[in-house]
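#lab-general

N.A. 3:47 PM
ok so I finally got the sequence cleaned up, no stray characters, all 474 residues accounted for. can someone with queue access submit it? mine expired

B.Y. 3:52 PM
send it over

N.A. 3:53 PM
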Amino acid sequence: MAYVRRRGNQLAIVRGARHPETKKVEQEILFTLYSRGEALAAIGKDGGDAFRFQSLVEHAHPDVRFDWKAISRAISENLDVLPETYDYRSTRLQAGFRRDLLAFARQVVLTDPLGSTSARQVVDEHREALEYVRELIDRRLAAPAQVESEWTADNAFYWRFASRPSDVPGDVEEHAAEQYARQEYGRASAAFRLLTEAFPDYAEGHNYLGLIALDQGRAAEAVGHFERTIEVGRRLLPRRVARSAWWSDHRTRPYMRGLRNLALALVQAKRYQEALATCDRLEAECDDKITASAHRASAHLDTGRWREALESAVFIHQISPGDSLLAAFAAFELGREPEARALFLHAALNKPRSVGRLVGARFTAPRDRDEAIDHNDGVLLARTLDDFLRKRRPASRRFFTALWEHPMVKDLREEVAVATARWQADRKGQDRAAFDRMQELRSWGFAERAWGPEGPPFAGAAARTGGRARRQLH
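B.Y. 4:20 PM
back already:
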């Protein structure tokens, strides 16, 4: 709860916050009032706008509770401490920016790589960060002039500028995330490293650094980044989170993403017991049995626990068809070949590039976004199932290669591709026939009927539970 305190000849709206290292409760300043005129405006007197002031402060601190009646009363009772006027432009608007700009400029000016080898080392060590800052500066300078409106205009006290949220702006994160999506890993890493150091509560930056490390095959390093994501994400959690609120309260997202991706990284790092323990946490703390089952399936398959792998994969395979392939591998090892065939067909008609990669098929370069996603999922799956694929029995290789090359499977894959292309070409959506056929071919029911036992006992419990993704960013 926020309250008002005197600070010399200023009034500060503060709250008690526990220091993350010392664990001591300290006062965190949320907003400072510097003059009597500003204080009166903040409480709606002398032509002020109390609603605007309150809205800006609440937007800057969404996790803080404000009793504005009590705050306004405290401000009124302490007006005598404030001076009549204050130089807002040169202090509130410019002082912090100019101070830090001059400090940065001084370092750049004095660190001359032509003057000493040590200066050259410093510049080289920070080259990627400097290049990112240069690009960010160019973006800020190139921004068009704003037409002043109620959403952009500030007042004489610069409330809008002073109450800026203290986290990473959305456009900055989006720019860095686009570099990651384009697989410009060097630039993206430099951006996220700089942002995580500049903004201590930026959990998503640690998550992106972990994803970059995973994509580059550095699972052990990724584990560290995801553990940091969880650590920072835990600080951002509300004091109490109801089990039912984990999926509706957006403040839980960094912590959940960290746990999800930590489980994935631990499987790729072959630390299976830790991965399974993380899955247990994900389910117990966050009520996320869907993602937990996905990572359990991989860990169990890698360690030869076929029955557990089958149960975990089948729990989600109707909402995550790629997991039908894991279930097929496990079913074959258990001697349940008819089920393995149906599961394999379901996976092959939904994720042909992922499945083909694991049976040794070759493809041309992806032609569109869907094919690129399928390709990337196959790369991820191959890394995640590395132990299983290396130790796989020759009989399993022959069985699934033969299924992939079977004339019926080839014909059905081609039919899915044709129906998908027809549906994508029908921009106006006037002909549902192609879409309906595509959906039918990709359904679990079709795979059962086309090539599998009638009504297997593991029809897929998670079909009614909602969606999941093996690796979610947002």
